[in-house]
Amino acid sequence: MTANAFFVAAEFALVTVRHTWVAELTRSRPGAATHVRRAVAKLDDTIAATQLGITIASIALGWLGEPALARLFEPFFASVVSFHRAAAHTAATAVAFAAITFLHVVLGELAPKAVALGQPERVALATARPLLLFGAVFRPIILAMNGAGNFVVKRLGFVPPTGHARVHSVGELKMLVEETQGAGSLDPVSAEVVGRALELTERRVYDAMVPRARVASLDLEMSEGEIVDRICAAEFTRMPVWSRRKQRWIGVANVKLLLLQQARTGRLRLRDAIYQPLTLSRGAPLALALRAFRKRKQHLAFVVADDGAQIGIVTLEDVLEQMVGSIDDELDLREGERDARMSRASVEKAERPSLP
Hints:
This protein is an alpha/beta fold. 65% of the residues lie in helices and 10% in strands. α4 packs across α6. It is rod-shaped.
């Protein structure tokens, strides 16, 4: 009975234990994690070992336990009830079988399963080492069993599994986040951030970009006064620079550098503050855009269509807002002021058809 309970607990614990917990335990307690990591890494062999152990223990329990209990019950039926000896033996055997089955299911199956599902980490730590030893002793039998099982699976037209590690889809991960929040282990703000971060894998650059018609740009041919006016109206740190001759953006101007230049020299030289930004395809995943921003240490990228035409911009803030929601600071305009600014920009665009 104890052996059966051990193998059942080991099976449920090693199947249930989180791989992330095993990885974390490997970093914090490498010695304690060694056996669990080995058992989980070869889960097919591990599960085969538990199944072999459960089968051996169950057969042994029925083989030894049923006759022993039958001998205990047989005198009772022979003395209390006027049974023929053969009838008493049959009744005792039936009662012994029922008792063994009940004890086997409760103590050998249900109880260890409940413990393993409730505390898979502790049970995995306690059972991994002896289970690996059992698997090493019976390795030839386990390999033969796995081979025979895979052969049967193939003959039935299925592909034998290569492991038991489960890969969750984005939708399943979002459901796990919701369940974790519902259980009180994750606050609503963190749950929202995690959920949006998962959605980032499904979003594209065009979901976050600012269309070209709405981009506040500087004109390479602008006078110093016009540059200052445009900077003050837009209130952005980085602004694309438009070339009328090329009819395209030729770079991005860092407004801080422009203002520092003016403070030091008394002049604004737009060309000296221009740098070449990232260029991203409109269909590129936002996760890729975020990685590119971090790698290049930039905050703004030009967005191009399939034919290479510039159709807008996307900023690091735009990408982050897809994860955490709107990010406003003390300089962000109220909705009415923003509408008024956009109206002024539309008038300027009508007066300057060459500007984006």
